[in-house]
Amino acid sequence: MTYFPPAAEICDSPRHDWSIPEVLALFELPFVELIYRAQTVHRQHFNPNQVQMSTLLSIKTGGCPEDCAYCPQSVRYSTPVKAEPLLPLEEVLTAARNAKARGASRFCMGAAWRRLKERELEPVAKMITEVKALGLETCVTLGMLGPGQAERLKAAGLDYYNHNLDTSPEFYGEIITTRTYQDRLETLSQVREAGIHVCCGGIVGMGEERSDRAGLLANLANLPRHPESVPINRLVQVEGTPLAGAPELDPFEFVRTVACARILMPASFVRLSAGRETMGDELQALCFLAGANSIFYGEKLLTTPNPTTDHDQQLFERLGLELLFPQAQVAAPVPEADEVGSASG
Questions:
Q1: Alpha-carbon distance 244 to 230, whole Å?
Q2: pLDDT per 10-residue tile (average), the chain, 345 residues
Q3: Catalytic annotation on 271?
Q4: Could you confirm whether 139 is annotated as catalytic?
Q5: Is 71 a catalytic residue?
């Protein structure tokens, strides 16, 4: 049986390489014990009553050539999502101004591309520069990057690049065949080398086993540096995609995933992302207790529904949560993984 020290010791250990059995041992702890450990770690790095808010806008919807089994934007599936061109700059800026007015501190822009092409870089770079000028943190997800593109996005003012691992290496082939796991890791490496913060997480509830959820988190935690943001997505089933009709994930298993992410990556922002629209207030409250401290805010996430802003504001009031604004955020980069790792093995 794997030994874990008291929660208070977790963040002070010098190690950072997590094995799948170690992460599974965390998942298998009694629920209350796991939440206690996650909350203890969380309080050592963050104010537990503050939540960072981001808004996500689809700047180029549909028409993606990839075969991600969860995604309604793929041209391979018959879904309600239709291909649309890149949004005009002013439409993006209007959405960014509205997001800031409602309390968002980061504005994320997503495009349904396999990879960023040279002709698309300049208009996206302009969006980044103009959104940054509004006083918002900037984030994009544009697929894979070519040589020098990350550096050009950085020069435009990009703060974060989102590129998820999706799931474990072992389950990955069941979800996508048009891009390899190594492709994803290489994109993350390009982003890091350019000095851009990394936003990287995955999706749960796609029919994977607990060992796959543990594998996803272990791979994230064993990156050379922990992602500054770790989005945990709960599968949104869309008619026409291969995963429509997949068995629902046990809500407590979702909370366990959040708690393990918090323990493995103590100084990262752990974000509740897709799937919140189907979560009750009680489930979201448990996630905040387990160490989630960031959400996507707004009625739509790319092409899927999200709770209304009024509902989120009411939930925050009921829970006594307050918004974490840019000036209150930790400005320094997240420590190296071996500086914030867990128990020595």
A1: 25
A2: 38 65 97 97 95 90 90 88 91 92 88 91 96 94 94 96 97 95 96 96 97 98 95 93 92 98 96 88 96 79 60 90 62 38 31
A3: yes
A4: yes
A5: yes
